[in-house]
Write a structure and sequence with these properties.
Blueprint: H1 2-12, H2 18-32, H3 38-56, E1 62-68, H4 74-82, H5 86-92, E2 100-103, H6 110-116, E3 123-125, H7 133-138, E4 142-146, H8 155-167, E5 170-175, H9 183-190, E6 200-204, H10 212-228, E7 236-238, H11 247-259, H12 263-283, H13 293-306, H14 309-328, H15 331-334, H16 343-346, H17 352-359, H18 371-389, H19 394-405, H20 411-421, H21 431-462, E8 472-473, E9 476-477, H22 478-550
Parallel strand pairs: 1-4, 1-5, 2-3, 5-6, 6-7
Antiparallel strand pairs: 2-4, 8-9
Length: about 550
């Protein structure tokens, strides 16, 4: 289909923008597929295919279709325009649902007739030795169709008329003075063709049967009915095919429009605009909305709450305090902290990258979302959809709302995976804590050394052995200073480190909170925001395509 459209656009870019209109309508139908009523979209898609096909065929021939009800004189009008003998027509006149085609200038019309679906036995070539040269020249390039009666009791006749009315470049409606107001032709054919007045003529046949003083009033009444059908300005020609009245005027009007070489383009443009208008009526004309940052932030916050981010952040802060205090505390008493449970271990969030590789996926023990948390998620998703669908038609609103909740069944698993795969940075001891640990053991070693030294001095004194000289620092015996100073400095260092531990724990908690919310934001985008944005992009694409088709 794309190659067909490309070929069609090449044919018309030199004189018309219809190629861009067709491309715009195609763009709109593709974007609206599955979102708007299939009947409207299929109708627009059919117009795209039909117009593209017609543009690939002969541009030198114009298809003019005569349509009318039983007894309207449509066939006699056809005979009068073609100037063929009735006996000659009788041989070729279809007795089934097929139309008859008369061609002026057959060269290049074969593919067009095949596309119209006119069998060879129902085709008449006007070029012959019996033709008048001026008539042939005047109507050269015309493919005149005599359609079956649109009010025939045969269903096949109805289908054939409807099919060829869609394909014809120009329509000539032959009406009867007795039935020109019949709802069958107005409701089924004329009203649906509103906007096609530029490619339409109306013939009031059998005008000879109407008294002269009533003829002009009847013509005005036909014009009034056409205006009510959405076809103002359509020429209404009085004709009597039986007597030949008005046939020359009708032939001249057809010849004039064909000579202008605008009928085919005008019909195709009218078809595209009509289909685009129907699609726009279903799609709406509201501007393309966008998601507000505040609304997305509120959704991310609801997802984070449902994922247990506050619980995990508190666990990170508590675990960091516990591990750092254990590393920097006074070694004599710090081992008591091992008796306290590590909250990250309880949540299965301390596996580290190696542990996650072994388990294949990070599964956590974070509490599942409560009913209140799930209700908050549902509320935020609904609020987001309400915000972007304001002003949209029900069809697009339903599409956006369906997209917003389409992935929510995966919410629990995706949130758990996001939390479990996030590097919380809590399994690593701060560098300064390791330095403090080394210093604490140095102080413990100093205290032990001082204790041993004092013990040795006591043993020497007890044994009444001459006491060796003892070094003093600032008036204090060195062994005493090592024992008391090592213990006091260790305890004081542990107390001072608690301040650093508190600051580190809070910093780690903030970092974990940021990383977790970034991960949750990705889940929010994947499950809700991206599906909604895809629908908004489709809406924007449809609006742009329709704008091009209708400009």
């Amino acid at each position: 289909m794309s190659s067909l459209l490309e070929g069609a656009k090449k044919l018309v870019t030199r004189s018309s923008d219809i190629g861009a209109r067709v491309e715009g309508l195609e763009q709109a139908t593709e974007a609206a597929r599955g979102r708007l009523d299939d009947r409207v979209v299929d109708d627009a898609r059919g117009v795209v295919d039909r117009v593209a096909s017609r543009l690939k065929l002969s541009a030198d021939h114009t298809v003019v279709a005569l349509a009318g009800a039983t007894g309207s004189g449509k066939s006699s009008t056809f005979n009068a325009l073609t100037e063929l003998e009735l006996s000659a027509v009788g041989v070729r006149r279809p007795t089934t649902s097929w139309a008859t085609a008369c061609v002026w200038g057959r060269d290049g019309a074969e593919e067009l007739l095949e596309w119209l679906g006119i069998p060879a036995r129902h085709q008449v070539t006007r070029d012959s030795m019996l033709s008048r040269a001026d008539d042939d020249q005047e109507l050269r390039g015309v493919v005149l169709l005599d359609l079956p009666d649109h009010d025939s009791t045969e269903v096949s006749h109805h289908l054939e008329v409807e099919r060829l009315v869609e394909l014809a470049d120009m329509m000539v409606w032959v009406l009867d003075p007795q039935k020109y107001a019949d709802a069958a032709i107005h409701d089924r054919f004329l009203k649906p063709l509103a906007g096609h007045e530029g490619v339409m003529l109306v013939v009031l046949n059998h005008i000879d049967t109407v008294p002269e003083d009533r003829r002009e009033g009847m013509l005005d009444d036909v014009r009034r009915l056409l205006a009510a059908d959405g076809l103002p300005g359509v020429p209404v020609l009085p004709v009597s095919a039986r007597h030949g009245w008005g046939i020359d005027v009708l032939r001249a009007e057809i010849a004039k429009r064909v000579a202008e070489k605008k009928v085919t383009r005008a019909r195709l443009e009218a078809d595209v605009k009509a289909a685009a208008q129907r699609l726009q009526d279903a799609s709406g004309t509201g501007r393309t909305p966008s998601l507000s940052k505040d609304r997305v932030a509120a959704l991310d916050d609801a997802f984070a709450d449902a994922a247990g981010v506050p619980t995990v952040v508190r666990a990170v802060e508590t675990s960091t305090r516990l591990r750092a205090n254990r590393a920097t505390g006074w070694p004599v008493t710090a081992w008591f902290s091992r008796l306290k449970p590590d909250p990250l271990k309880r949540l299965h969030l301390d596996l580290g990258s190696a542990g996650k590789q072994l388990t294949g996926t990070a599964r956590t023990s974070v509490p599942t979302a409560t009913g209140v948390q799930r209700a908050r998620v549902d509320t935020e998703v609904r609020a987001l959809a309400d915000q972007v669908t304001e002003g949209m038609t029900p069809a697009w609103s339903s599409s956006v709302r369906a997209a917003s909740v389409s992935r929510l069944p995966d919410l629990g698993d995706r949130l758990d995976a996001a939390v479990g795969s996030t590097d919380l940075g809590a399994d690593r001891i701060p560098v300064w804590a390791n330095l403090v640990r080394v210093l604490q053991w140095i102080l413990i070693a100093a205290a032990i050394l001082g204790a041993l030294w004092l013990g040795l001095l006591a043993l020497v004194s007890y044994a009444r052995v001459p006491e060796p000289p003892t070094l003093e620092v600032w008036g204090w015996p060195l062994p005493t200073l090592l024992l008391i100073g090592g213990i006091a400095a260790g305890v004081l260092l542990a107390l001072l480190c608690r301040v650093l531990v508190s600051l580190t724990a809070r910093a780690r908690a903030r970092t974990a909170d940021r990383r977790l919310r970034d991960a949750i934001s990705e889940v929010s985008a994947e499950l809700v925001v991206d599906p909604v944005n895809r629908e908004l992009a489709a809406y924007s694409t449809a609006r742009e395509g329709l704008s091009t088709a209708l400009r």
